[in-house]
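Supplementary Text 2. Reproducibility record for the structural model of the 481-residue chain.

All settings were left at their defaults, and a single model was retained for analysis rather than an ensemble. We include the record here because the model underlies the residue-level annotations in Supplementary Table 4.
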Amino acid sequence: MRAVVVGAGFSDIDAAVRLREAGFDDVLVLEQNPQLGGTWRENTYPGCSCDVPSTLYSYSFAPDATWSRLFAGQLEILAYLQATAERYRIGDVLRCGVQVLEASWDGAAGRWLLETSDGPYSAAVLVLATGPWHVPRRLDVPGIEDFDGPVFHSAQWDHSVDLTGRRVTVVGTGASSVQIVPAIEGQAANVNLFQRTPQWVLPKPDLPVPAAFNQLMDYVPGARGALRVGQYALQESVGYTLRHPQAAHLLEAGARAHLRLAVPGVQLRRHLTPDYRLGCKRLLTSSTFYRALSQPHVRLHPTAVSAVQGNEVVGADGTVVPTDVLIEATGFRVGELPPAKSLRGTDGRTLHETWGGEPQAYLGTTVSGFPNLFLLLGPNLLGDSTSAITVLEAQLTYLTAVQKALATTVYNTGGCTSYCFAPTGQNTFAWPWSTRRLKRRLRHFDAAAYTSDTLARPLPLPAQARPRPGDRTATTNAERP
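Retained model, structure tokens:
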């Protein structure tokens, strides 16, 4: 193949569309699961939804989705991905149920050699788009393997388990937990929530979108684009406060007011108030989480879980909670890229060995010693203030010294530990400047930053760009891949 894309989520579908638009019809997308969807296929827990406005959390080349809410739910986002994949004929190049086991660079051939569950493949270009929200972080405490009842991670929700009338314990108060607890508290007999660290939570204006509004957006030329630009500007203004911690007091004041209005109990408010700067950890949004915690059958335990004994969950402070169902809302191993351990570059070392625990990439996209390898949503590109899709599309337009800039941001100075940091203490996740700067930096390919080897057999040049499948221009059978 000319190019192989690993994964079939938001990133991979976008990559396939953009590569084919550029005329690279010899493209293949390999997905180890039975269907596409990525994180929106895997996360099916109650209340699962996006925390970025739906209009912004969509492709710029397919912005015309008629979202039912300002912040779309998991099923609607998955349906959008499936519809977009069908519209752009991704099925022509998608092979599901194929796991990439190993990949190595063949310098003589100038190609990546892949060993997969479907046999060997080779490609001139390898695109890794497995995403940072892929490997669940499981609760690792003594006795959990012997828990007397159902236990599952939020990303592996067991829908066969009925929570009605059950004693449910949720561990963790991150992005998934603030959605899960309000969604299940009406069913469960009681809900116990273990919180190791309190989170900053802003209200989420998750309102329904009237059908008339969607019709207006379709009727008025440029309306959807203008709305997208407005939402982008709003998200970037939030990002400004994260890059300039002295300005974070404004958002902190809003978060404190939200907490004060939603939670009447003084002690509960105290337990829910962070002691670090807003933005140091992922900024959460919810207008229902605090209200759920104030219900008489829901109890917050401001302590970590230290052990599980039979059907009891034990807190580090000695709290013992009888439990029927244990839910791990403990997030993901964001810094880990599973293929990195089986991906070998020019010197035979794996990408994991090359990084040595500190993922780094030029503009978050390419890595020295790994020719023609492109990482989507790679190191030091993301933040909590805008859509990952915006970053992704900036990278695909491109197919650095960020640590100094990160030193002054709230990501590094906020006074907390978070998934941004590698075990060595290096911030390998966040982009310290505006997304606009990222897009501008990735807009032009910097040839001087790369070396080039002349191959004995030159690679084929891309054909002239084809019309998009959604365009009105006719496409002949001869043009189809």
